[in-house]
Amino acid sequence: MSKIGNFKQLLKSRVVRCVSVIDRLIGPRLRFGTASQLSRETHQGIDRRVCEVIDDSYAGVVGSGPFSQMVILDQVSWGKGSDRAPKLLGCYEQELHAAIKDFVALRPRCVVNIGCAEGYYAVGLARRLPGSRVAAVDLDEVALMACDAAATANNVSEQVTTMLPDELDASWTEVEGALFVVDVEGAEVEILDLNRMPALRSAMVIVECHDFKRAHITAELQSRFADTHHIENVRQSGRNPGQFAVLRDRPESERWAAVNEHRPCVMNWLVMTPNSGAN
Question: Which residues, at least 6 apart from 113, have a Cβ–Cβ distance to it below 8 Å?
Answer without folding.
Answer: 119, 121, 122, 125, 134, 135, 136, 137, 180, 181, 182
